[in-house]
Write a structure and sequence with these properties.
elongated; 2 domains; three-stranded mixed beta sheet; alpha/beta; Rossmann fold; 6-phosphogluconate dehydrogenase C-terminal fold; 9 strands; six-stranded parallel beta sheet; 10 helices
């Protein structure tokens, strides 16, 4: 048995890849008494129960029994989910957190439901995932050695923050802290924009070049760059719609870089093209060791 104190009963709202992986990781670490799964899809719940991801299929009212509630639904569902929480008589001392890729939207959802962000709510975001979605793709090691960003407000309760940090540490994750605005800016640049670019590139090749065989000739670079275009379109639609200002600003910045690069091509300026590529290579190599990349 783990030496860590139990988190008690944990309810996962949205038993998909992230919610399911969190449940498996917490159970593996033996830091929960029970995991309740709550999801609109009865099929997903029964699959999660059969796979041992959850211990119990729960109804919405069962959230009143939970010590920790994790909101792992698509971002677009958070407004109705938060309103549903408000209508329940949650247990005293409950801690609620989320796993969403945008933080401004979940705070807006909480404020709409409660009039303010409750002190027991601690926003979180695991920087981990797979191209496959659904509880069938869940894995106990999904968060191991991956960053989890925890975001707080001045009113955030220290005890609640400690519970959420302890929960993620139990999964083997590397917990770090960012402000709400910094989170959405950083993730917009490093996750949201790359996903948009990957989707657009695949769409361009499929529609504008008018021949499917182009994909059969694509080398590893194309597969690596567009791998994330196999992610859930519904999830990434919601992410884009809930972080639009940051994403539009980044797209405008990227567009200006494309225009400048087009001018280098017009000028035949190989020296500046190479210098640009070299600077980018050095910046990436400074943060990633190629030998450690899969």
């Amino acid at each position: 048995m783990s030496e860590q104190a139990s988190l008690g009963t944990v309810a996962i709202v949205g038993v998909g890849l992230i919610g399911g992986s969190l449940a498996l990781a917490l159970k593996k670490a033996a830091v929960v008494d029970a995991v309740i799964g709550v999801d609109q899809s009865r099929g997903a719940l029964h699959q999660a129960l059969d796979l041992g991801v959850i211990d119990e299929i729960g109804e919405w009212s069962d959230l009143t029994r939970a010590d920790v509630i994790v909101l792992a639904t698509p971002v677009d569902a958070l407004f109705s989910v938060c309103q549903g929480l408000h209508d329940l008589d949650l247990r005293a001392g409950v801690v609620v957190t989320d796993v969403g890729s945008t933080k401004g939207s979940v705070l807006a959802a909480m404020r709409e439901a409660y009039g303010e962000v409750p002190a027991w709510f601690v926003p979180g975001h695991p920087i981990a995932g797979r191209e496959r979605s659904g509880v069938g793709a869940a894995a106990a090691d999904l968060f191991h050695q991956h960053k989890v960003i925890v975001t707080t407000l001045p009113e955030t309760d220290d005890a609640a923050l400690g519970v959420v940090s302890r929960m993620w540490h139990a999964t083997g994750a590397l917990v770090s802290f960012l402000s709400i605005d910094d989170h959405d800016e950083v993730l917009g640049a490093t996750s949201h924009l790359p996903h948009v670019l990957a989707y657009l590139l695949v769409d361009m090749l499929k529609k504008d070049l008018h021949h499917e065989e182009i994909f059969s000739y694509a080398a590893g670079g194309f597969r690596d760059f567009t791998r994330i275009a196999s992610s859930s379109p519904v999830m990434w639609r919601d992410v884009c719609l809930h972080n639009p200002e940051v994403l539009k600003r980044l797209i405008a910045n990227y567009r200006s870089r494309l225009v400048a690069f087009e001018q280098l091509l017009d000028d035949g300026d190989g020296e500046r093209i190479e210098a640009l590529f070299l600077a980018a290579k050095r910046a990436r190599d400074a943060h990633y060791q190629l030998d450690n990349e899969s």
